[in-house]
Write a structure and sequence with these properties.
This protein has one domain. The protein is built from 3 helices and 2 strands, in the order H-H-H-E-E. A two-stranded antiparallel sheet has the order 1-2. The radius of gyration is 25 Å and the shape is elongated. The mean pLDDT is 77.
Length: 76
């Protein structure tokens, strides 16, 4: 019985250590060089998108106002 309890305790502790050390979500939400790159896209933009719908010669023009801001400590 002592061996079973000891083995269970060992497995539990190793699993918990691995889960804490290899958490991809923590790495994902930590600001990194990618966030520095995205900071260049901060600001207000007006975009004009022109699309052809099907085989018709008529073009659709869409004007989009976009506002990009960094939040949560320098993240998008």
């Amino acid at each position: 019985m002592k061996i079973f309890i000891g083995f269970t305790w060992l497995i539990f502790n190793v699993t918990m250590m691995n889960a804490q050390n290899q958490d991809p979500w923590t790495e994902y939400v930590t600001p990194s060089s990618v966030h520095n790159l995205l900071s260049h896209y901060e600001g207000s933009f007006v975009m004009e998108i022109t699309m052809a719908t099907g085989t018709e010669k008529k073009l659709s023009i869409i004007i989009v106002d976009s506002d990009h801001t960094m939040f949560l400590g320098g993240r998008f």
